[in-house]
Design a protein that fits this description.
The protein is of the alpha+beta class and 396 residues long. The protein has 2 domains: 135 residues, no CATH class; 217 residues, no CATH class. Strand 6 and strand 7 form a beta hairpin. Helix 1 packs antiparallel against helix 2 and helix 4 crosses helix 5. The chain is globular.
Amino acid sequence: MSRPAVEVADILHAQGDTFLEQHPWLSVQQRSVLRAIARCRTAALGGHLDRCDACGHQAISYNSCRNRHCPKCQAQARERWLHARERELLDVPYVHVVFTLPHGLLPLAYRNSARLYTGLFHASATTLRDIAADPQHLGAEIGVLSILHTWGQTLVRHPHVHCVIPAGGLAPDRQRWIRPKYADFFLPVKILSRVFRGKFVEALRRAYGRHELDLSGGTEHLRDATQWQAFIDALFQTDWVVYAKPAFGGASAVLRYLGRYTHRVAISNHRLLAFDGRRVTFQWKDYAHENRSSTMTLSAMEFLRRFVQHILPRGFVRMRQSGFLANACRTARVTLARTVLAASSIACPSAAATPPTTDTATAATWTCPRCGAAMILGPILSALQLMTITMGFDTS
């Protein structure tokens, strides 16, 4: 894939210092991420002097920052994660359900993001599991993979969680696999929406009662009990958005599907169209108007302000599994699910039948720009050594 015309790092190189000066409220984590993105694949992080065995061409490849918010560092992390998930997938249809927090909660998210995002994970997963366990709907224990996204296409805050779920689950006696009654229907969206809203608001009330919310700045008025109750009442006056997409295929299809959602960052470099040193133009999809492609231009300061609000707190886990896919019991429960699926004469991949993957330890890192042969990875070099080499060295 060719290098994008503009990268987030280019904007940071030009306006990063000014942005940091004008926004002293940035957290240590946000400053650390911006610094990592700016230094990614530059001499500052060191690198390798690689060589082509076929033609003798030499070139420097700089080290990556490997930060999970960096637009340039997600491809290999995504492949490693998907490879680890291969043996946990079942050869049954999967469904995709999206839970979104309403716009009215956004003021709380500025100072309570970790708590609200954790609540979003918990409320959405328990809603799915509780409704699925109800015999009136499915009557089974399901497994849920949840992936948090905090952004919309224009980089505004838009917290939502993508839930990918095998279409069916284990019966209460764990001797049978229960499938949905209809191929194009999993669980009722309206009921999911109402239960999700109730669970999330109840958790919010508990946090308020225990004084665990940071109610300062624009939310300081919510310290008043009357104002808080009015705020809660307003949350119940609108339907919360829960969107269920049509079911898609089995194990091989779900790997391709997951690759579109895991390890994504707020904006990819390939969506950036132009940067004149002060203003950034990028492409976005208008989902409200049939995914129409549009462009938006923002000042560099506003672009970076929107970007940093999607930097998660250090250590916050943005992909979680629950139900029979929960970490504590995943291997045993997936094995059990395969057993009952096989007993039900439903095709399910064995360990030997998992899709082949590339061994990242032995794969060529890149190809020679002159002859196309594999480049041999050279020794690790420090930033000082690279600076010495690049003096009079052609890296093209």
